[in-house]
Design a protein that fits this description.
Layout (H helix, E strand, L loop, with lengths): L19 H13 L7 H8 L5 H6 L7 H8 L14
Length: about 90
């Protein structure tokens, strides 16, 4: 085959060829969509959370284990050898 391939219609099957125009149109619609797209598993996980927006913001930007970060700071605390009693 030589020359251009012209597709006569939009795809109707998972493995059908698509035109650039078809892809561009779909992407434009998708990128303008402000809703969140989740898998079923992600949605189930989020439904199980019981945190407030404020609590989520406390860990915004955390890139490693919070406990690891706290453990690293412990040697810097001047009162680390003190015993603290709660009553």
């Amino acid at each position: 085959m030589t020359g251009f391939l012209t597709l006569h219609a939009d795809p109707t099957g998972a493995l059908h060829a698509v035109t650039k125009q078809y892809v561009d149109s779909g992407m434009g619609t998708h990128t303008a969509d402000t809703s969140v797209h989740l898998t079923s598993a992600q949605n189930t996980f989020l439904d199980g959370l019981t945190v407030t927006a404020t609590e989520v913001n406390y860990v915004e930007g955390v890139t490693s284990s919070v406990q690891t970060q706290l453990d690293a700071k412990l040697p810097l605390w001047p009162y680390r050898d003190c015993k603290i009693a709660f009553s």
